[in-house]
Structure formats: structure tokens, C-alpha cells
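Sample A.
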Amino acid sequence: MMFSMEMLPGIKACVFDAYGTLFDFATATAACRDELGDKMASLSAVWRDKQLQYTWLRTLQGEHADFWQVTGDALDYALEALEISRPGLRSKLLDLYLKLGTFPEVTGVLRRLKAAGMKTAILSNGTPHMLKAAVDHAGIAGLFDEVLSVEEVGVFKTHPKVYQLAVDRLGVGRESISFQSSNAWDAHAASAFGMRVVWCNRYGQRRERLPGMPDREVRTLGSLPEILGLQSMRV
């Protein structure tokens, strides 16, 4: 897919994935650089990969556990796989996961959307506690109409019930929602559900071969206001 700034017409609400899209999950391991040394990047990657795998596998098994447990289980796997054993490190990393940094453009983009009267929401695998902690730490709570957790439907993305939750809570038709995610699998699932989708391909991923197709592909969320036709709304 080519990067495109062509406008998406008729959008009434913007819904964002949380981790990797608004919040940089790598900031947790980066804050432990001294303890992790040259294993820092590997731990971040294995932790994230296993975290996502566990959500998919638990959904297939019908064995739901909330994202906080999944995050801890994935970290335990990653620490063992990389043979990292330091007293207190697990607790420190999990505490840092509640205080992740946002990507640089996030706050400015959200302010522009709200100034233009756009409805905004987070739709995430994260638990309500995790999402509240992240949003409060970033100081962006007032920039969302809704912060939605999959715990309301008891199943992880990419189940259609998750995307329907945003439709129901925002009171906006799926075709009038622009969904933003850095995860290609999430972007495809939202598109297959019927949302318009902006894939924020921060990590230079290859496109997936899955049902659905993102409407736009961008490197950061910085171009989102222009894609939605909000060029004149600058805050």
C-alpha cells in the first residue's frame, strides 16, 4: 500500500488502539536500560510478541484472562527465554507498563481533533485499570469521549464484538468511524468489520494477507487531521 494523504470523507469519530499506537510500549524496557544491557531490545520484542500471541490463543481456547495477567505472563516467558534474572526487575517493568510514554505527535493530534468537534475514543485490549493509568500519566484523559476496554465484552481483538463496542458506545455508524492502529492485524480486522481505517505503520511492517484493507497508511498520526480534512484546525 502506498502512503496517501487523500481525504477520508464523512468521518464523525476517531477511535484509537492504545499500545503501539498512542503509547510506546518500548519505553518500559528503555527505562531499565542499565539492568538489561544488550538484551533490552530483545526483551521488548519477545515480551510484546508473546503478549499478543497469548491474547489470540486464549481467545481461540475460550480461556479469557484480562490483559494485565496476559502482560505479566508474557513478561515471565520473555525473562526466562532470555535468561534474565534480576531481583525486583519484573515488578519494576510491570509498574513502568502503567506509565508508558506517548509518541511525540499524539497530544497535539488529539487536541486538533477535539477542537474540530470530532468524537474520540480508545479501544484497547488493556484493562480499565491499565488504560486509566496510562491516560492519566500522559495527561490526555480530557481528550477522549470514551476509553473502552475489551473487558466489557470478555474477548480480545480481533473478535468483531470488540469493534462493535465502539459503535455502540459512540453512537456512530461503523462507516463513519476512522480507526487508527499501528498493528496491521488490528487494522485489517477493523476494516473487515466495516470501519474506515488509518494504519499507522510506525514499524515499517509488511502488509498482511488478511480480510479487510486499511484505507490509508501513514508513518505517524501527525497527518491524521489532514486526512480527515481538518487542515485549518491547529491548536
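Sample B.
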Amino acid sequence: MRQTLLLAAALCLPGAALAQGSANLDRASRNPTAPAKTVAESSAASAASVAASSVAAEIPFSEILNRPDDVGLNERYALQRIRAGDLRGAATTLERVLLVDPTRYRTRLLYGVVLVRLDDVADAALELDRVLATPALPRETRDEAEAYERLVRSRRRLSHFDARLTLGLGFDDNRNAAPNSGTRLIQGTPFQLTDDSRRKADSNLQFVGSLGASRQVWGATGDQVFARFTYYRAEQKVYDLLNLQAYSPKAGAVLRTRWADVTPSLSFDHVLLSQSSYLRSRNADLRVERRLSDRWSAWFEFGHSYQDFLDTPRVAGASGRTGDQLDWTLGTAWSPDPLDRLTLTALHRRKYAQDVAAYAYRRESVGAQWLRLLGRGRFATLGVTGQFDRYEIPDPSVEPGVVRHDDAVVVDLLYGQPLDLLWSRLRNLEASVGYEYFYEGSTVVNYEYSNNKATAFVTYKWGI
């Protein structure tokens, strides 16, 4: 029955890793320095495959009807329903097992965990209390039950607080986005790149710190308000022009209706480039997400930003990019089983520039990401994104008469795991390593370039 506890862990325990994204400042989004997140939803998820291997063949429901008092058969059927994503069916089956044999404490623990996953935390608490009241309960089972009981208490708490500290290293083989052609156009005239402007490999040290708080409001519907503050810093070893700092406060609410979860939020990003203020962005977002089934969800998000770019001592003319940015995003996520999730997104962007119309553009972007849970908190992701930018008018300072069209592809890989797998004292610490390949083709040779990026991070997480 050990596999039932492993699968219970696969259902409940959250984990996360951070990975840093953006290629260069010209391609930055609403928050050009915020780290991209990839969430691994379990600290023991591949244990579900262990449970799966214990079941030789699919059990038809007709056999359950014929043998309702066979507790072993019903337990295997419950694991089968969990693997299929039918948690309600699994809960019904486990409840039937416990009616036949109430002393099966491991089955009761799995039943409690399934109830947590179904957001029935009150009944889950009762089941976990019954497990812990079992005489002569094995120490391993007691530790697991107490861990889930703490999770239930956290779920029932109205207020939650969390903190994350991330320290990492990054390496780019073309940090300054030098053109692949080795030439750069100035007013339509090609010039060979100088030593200072050729492709530069560079490494950086990155730090991310964030504090968050949320509180449930307006009764038992699950509505909540939240706030978060994030600080980001990256220091380059060679190309110090791209030393970055960003301060990003954000606040909003989650309104849970019968039809969908609605999340409005406001945020502000203050970005410093080489220790000088470079961007102040005021952002408003609205996300509407609906769970279509146990395996499938979809969402729509609209974002508006007013981006105020500032000239710096080392970047003249940045203020010409000042203007509104509008984003419309459609997304869907599908989980064929508890270990895998496929996410698809499509984005349309309009970027306006008040003073220099040549900086205004439209972007169409499509992306896919596959998340695989590897068990014991480990995870891996593979993502592919294509983005297509169409600028409004030619930039006479670069190439008069040619309208810039950029087509880019991004391929990224990420692997992460808790560090307590290596040493038990490293609790609440996670490590991740990532790789990203970026290529952009353009009608203007200045913007045709490629880059290979590697990252390694360690993250400390705390939460109540």
C-alpha cells in the first residue's frame, strides 16, 4: 500500500522554480526583467507511475459492481481513477473501502489527500485526524499525515504570507544582440562592426526577492485580495550597459464566480539600466479563467501598460519609445494524466510610440510548453515560442524605405528539483538549470541575430 501514499503526495504538494527569460531590452514585455515562472505542481509526482505499475490492467466498473466488498480490488480501482484524473470517482471508491474496513489507515490517508485536492478541506481534516488517532500508527505514516494536516491548516487559514529568494548565474553567447551579418546599417549605409559592438559572450549574477500576502474575503466563496513586491537585479561581468534593476509592486483580487475566476490587478515597474532610471511602467491587467473539466482549463487576459521610457547617460533616444502597450492573450492547459501538462498560448500586442512612430509595432505570438513531473519534486519543461513583429513605418536612422519585420523563434528547456533530495537539511531550497535558444530573422540586418543562454538558480521558499 506504500504506492497509495506516494500517489497522495503526487496530488497535493506544490513546488516551483524560477528561470530568467528576456533576450534584450528592445524585446522586453510589460515587465522586461521579471523572471519567467515554471510551476511544478508536485514534490513527488512520478510516484503516480509507481502506482500505475502496480495495476496490471484496467479494471472495468462492472467488476467493481460484482465485487463491491473486495477492498484490494477497490483500492486498485481508486488508483486507476486518480491516474485518469477522476478524483471524485476515486473519492467515492475509497469511501466504499473504508465502509468495509475502517481500520485501513493508509487508505484513509489517501482519501483525506484526495479530499484536499477536491478543496473539501473540512472533511479532509476529519479524515486526517482519524488517521492520527490510530493506535500504534507507524512513524512514517504519522509523519506523512502530519505533513498533510499542516497543508490543510494552511488551506483553511484566511491570511497567507510567502517569501522567495533566488540567486543564480546566467551566461549568454551574444549578450549585446550583435547582428549575425557582422554589419550594421546607419541611415542605409552598412558599416562593419567594431570590436566594441561585435558579438559578446557574457555572464551575469542574478538576484530575485519577492514578498507576497493574500487574504480570503467575502465569506466562503474563496474570493481573495493579494499583494506582492518583487525586486530583481542582474549584474553583467563584461557588458555592464545591461546591468539591470527592477522594482515591481502589484496588488489585485481574485473573484470566484460560478462561471469563472476573474482576477483584476494593478502593478508598477521601475526599471534601472546601468544604474540609471530607464523605464517606469504603469500596468492594469484583467484575467478570466474557467476550468472546463478536471483536465482542461482556459483563460483570457487583457493587459494595458503606459510605458514611460527615459533617456540615460548611456542610452540616448530611449524616450522615443514612450507610449501605451496593449496585450490580448488566449491560453489553455490540458493534463492528459497527473504527470503531464500541455499549455498553449496566443498573444496579440499593439505597442504605440508617442514621439518616434518607427518604434510602434504589432506582435503576434504563439507558444507551447510541456511540463513533465518526474517525482520527488523534480520536473522538466520544454517550450517553443514563435513571435512575429510588424513595425508601422521605416526607421530613417537605420534603413530608409524598408519597414522592419521581425520573425523570431525561442526554444527553452528547464529542469528543477528540491535540494533536500541531496541533503535532508536543505529543506525549502530548490535548484534549477535552464537553456534557451533564440533566433530572430529580420528585413533589417541590424536585428537579425541569435543567442544561446544558460542559467542556474537556487531558490529559498517560505510560506504560511
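B remarks: Residues 179 and 300 are 36 Å apart (CA to CA). Residues 139-156 form the longest helix (18 residues).
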